[in-house]
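for the record, two folds in this file. i put them one after another cuz i was lazy. first one right below, seq on top, structure tokens after. the second one comes after a little note so u can tell where it starts
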Amino acid sequence: MPQSARCSLPPCLRAAKPRSGEARRSRSSDSRRQAKAAALAAGLCVAGVFAGGVLSACDVTIKDGDIKNVSVHARASQEWKRQYPLVDGGRVEIVNSNGPIEVVAGSAGGVDVVAVLEAQAMTEALAKVILGEITIEETVKPDHVRVATATARRSGRGGFEVSYRVTVPATARLELTGNNSRLKADGLQGHVKAMVVNGGIELTAMRGTIDAAAVNASVTVKMAEVMGPVRIESTNGRVSLEIPKAAKATLNARSVNGGISVSGLTTADEAPGRRIRTLESQLNGGGPEIDVRVTNGRISITGTDSPGVRSPQPR
């Protein structure tokens, strides 16, 4: 069983001790190695105390004489706020290297950004150092606002996360890029482009064109109206798509190492509810293209009741 060394407040250090009374040399060697690892773990905690002055907590797991995991609990955070003007139909771009992004529709003419920066480390002092190294880059033009998280690369000293909440005009064009992120947007009418590696994408009450791509992440898209092309792609993750039952669209879906399930829609090629891998169908006579591609994952397509749904007539 793994053994643990834990220090909560100095000088309280509790390290795993080697078993006594071992007769065999191999067991004695293992015990010595276990003791050294426990001593090193305790030393790490003590070093944290002297480095920062205050140590919230330090958990070290020792297995087979090796330190397998170190969890630290000291945190430092701050809030960052900005407001920008934006012309009608302007573009808003948010880039985040670690942490969620949430976007909601607001009044025309401006963009509000609230970011919470948080750093984690073994000591409060080190967490504050890491927090000071997180920067947010801004590019501001009348028709384009770009906000991006930037920080120096760190190795083994701690971690950080930046959480964004952004309010944009409903007609704005939106671009979200994330790594280890959950990307969310709600109630937008303009074009939305969302790309993420490790995390997820959730777009709800959409009325504009969609371009969503994910790796090691799930994608959920809920359309209030289908007024233009919708493209969704995922590698190693499922895709869930909801569209109004009355929407006119040309549906193309393909799943590799997965399946496609359809409910609430009448498709020309396959019976509703049947599990398939490829699907091509004209919905309600056809319209804008909906293209869904998944590798290693399921595709779920659902028709919903949405009063007053409008879709453009096919040309």
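(here's the note) second protein begins now
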Amino acid sequence: MSNARNLADLLTPGENTLQTVAIETDRIILDGTDGSATNAGDDLLLDASAASTDVGERFTYEDGTDDGSAVLSSDAPLVVSTVAGANGANATAITIDTTGRVLQPAKPFFHVSERNNTGSVGITGQLVFDTVITNIGSHYDTAGFFKAPVAGLYQFNFSGMGCGNTAGAALPSNQSAHVLLQKATADDFSTGLVSFASGFSQVVSSTSFPNLSVSGSILLAANDRVRAVMGNNYIFASTNAIYDPQFSGYLVG
């Protein structure tokens, strides 16, 4: 930055990270590291760009490099990028378009179902779904559980039909079916087991395939596991897709 002129320290050196300000013809730089006239370590850059058509249109926040990792522009959507790996490749984390719609394409989400059975069956215990419809971030394990990548609030949903045995027969009268959403801290759900939501249905006067639906929100720590499990009796599945049990979940924030 050969044309920069440095002002006096704004804050007492050693007590704050902000040390100097550099002002150029097309940008202002607040330097939070060594006060040198280079881009390395610049914490905040107000950049009007070298092109006259861009003057006054752009605000850029930088952290340690001159890569423009976050850009606010008057003539384009806001795009916030984050480094995805050691190879330096970037992946879009948030996009806000000109109508105000916010997209988070990397936000963890999964949707699985049981749909490939050769005939009617009843499934009990921990429900292991044979079809992965969506698995953003690959955090759903095909062993039958979701593993939280980060701590936060998560939402989970399950729907299906209860039945009475492994052959998928109707649930007899005076019996119930019960499904639970559970979290744990181990893959085998042997530690930290907590049931945080449940769905219950009872057949009173005749055989039936009662609806079983449950939704629940929970605060998870990173690496907590979540599953859907039958508390009693069975969940129905068959070759007809309209009866497929469905399980989904996502990070709220």
